Amino acid sequence: MGAAENCAVHTRMTEAENRHDLSRHEDYLHEDIVVYALGADPLPGIAAYRASMEAQYAAIQDWQVVLDDQFATEDRVACRWQVVGRNIHYAGAPLWEFDNGKERRRYRQREDRGASLFARVQIDNVGSTAPRREIVAPYAGSLRTIPGAAHFE
After folding, report:
1. Going from the N-terminus, what domains does the chain have, and what CATH number goes with each?
2. Strands 142-146 and 135-139: what pairing?
């Protein structure tokens, strides 16, 4: 697969996750996918990946990813993204290794401020009076707006 095809797979997976639809991840991920995150044990396999995503959906109301930038080579995709939801905002710049059009390994990194916000939202994300604004970011060649997303300055 080429760079354009890998970007397309990554974009389709992001769009599915934004719909909170994990039902077709076998189309995007290798059976033996491993996600590596700083300060955490490796996360092996599609089932573990799904469980991790379901936990994020449960903890963060209105969870969405905004892709700020995305580029690829014949076997890798890299991007800058933001996760936004009610009362949460954090960013990252991960690297995905692709093999035959599917993600085999992910190297994930979040900014420190976002990681602490993510931990806090798991405990209590109800009743916040944090100011809200719309976040607009380039996404797959166009502009995409997520209305009402919280942004922490």
Report:
1. 3-146 (3.10.450.50)
2. antiparallel
